[in-house]
Amino acid sequence: MKLIVGLGNPEQRYAHNRHNLGFMCVSHFAKIHRIKLDKKQGQARVGTGEITAETVVVARPQTYMNQSGQAVSRLVKRLNISLDGLIVIHDDLDLPVGRIRIRRDSSAAGHRGIESIITELDSQDFLRIRVGIGHPDVTESDIPTHEDTIIAYVLSDFTSEERKIIDQTIPKVSEAIHCLLTEGLTTTMNKYN
Questions:
Q1: Which CATH number covers residue 65?
Q2: Catalytic residues, which ones?
Q3: In this predicted structure, what is the pLDDT of residue 177?
Q4: Domains in the chain: how many in total?
Q5: Which of 96, 115, 144 is nearest to 7 (CA)?
């Protein structure tokens, strides 16, 4: 069994924010595989389906981003998922808009949702699909307000130009997830990194 989690914030006002890119990607994946995210399990919206004879649970935590680990750890325990079976999709400030990076066992790199998951699982040994949202322009004079600038940026919507890129990226993320499930990590990294 695999658990595929997209990170984001649950309220409608955050729906199109850069920080909700994980939700967008996992929702697209669920839709194309006819998996309905119509059940509440623990602190997440979940749906279950089968892909190439393997059971797949797709989830969107209903905690806020910074507490994502609470929902993920509950699902991992409840579903008895090994960390090898956990795939987390999230936005990444350090990648250009639309760029995809797939990694296992890496640090949180400042992403609070991933930090929360690592803390709750007491491990960073799970797969991540990082999807670039770019980085706000910050100058030396902005340093005192750097964190505020980052928060405002991730909680803002994509520009129309960025949206065009993201609309092409989301289906690629679904392809990458499918590739992970059917062809494994090495092949997927070679194709999509």
A1: 3.40.50.1470
A2: 19
A3: 97
A4: 1
A5: 115
